[in-house]
Request: fold
Amino acid sequence: MVQPLDTLHETASQTAGPYVHIGCIPSFAGLPGIYPEDLGRSPFSDGAEGEVVTITGAVLDGMGAPLRDAMLESWQADAAGRYPGTPGADPHVSGFCRFAADKDTGEFTLRTIRPGAVTGHDGRAMAPHISLWIVARGINIGLQTRLYFEDADNSADPLLARIDPPTRAQTLIAQRMAPEAYRFNIRLQGEGETVFLDI
Reply:
């Protein structure tokens, strides 16, 4: 017999724990040779079209201290705004990357192709962005957010337009530090808390 959805209870969750890197990115955790290379090592390969950019940052706790065991996954379109698997998408852009904070500094680095503006299923244009998923000890359910670019036209993006108050949208904007370098910190709570998405 199938249970109606309103009678089912949520399954218990647990934090990622201190061993998430060993299972997901063993080479990064100092255990090379388990896989030929860690899954999601880079979101693009040689021959990809577009501007290569480097995004650095940290996942910060409520006191502003970086989480040194945070792991992130990113998903994005190619330089023309097409996701992998769609017609005309760049075959050299997988769009997926898995990376982690440095165990000593808490800093993460994502080297990727700067994505183009995406047209949604409803025909509305979305500003260039990268979707992020974050896990670490103390986070029971992975957090979803987005990264937008300071020097892009973000004015008509439908997600940014829904954020209330509008000033909180700034928590999703990566700051340009150099011609091909951006800075993006993710704040879990407190002043300047990043906007997280319930998806």
User: Anything to note?
Assistant: The CA atoms of residues 70 and 131 lie 16 Å apart. The mean pLDDT is 92.
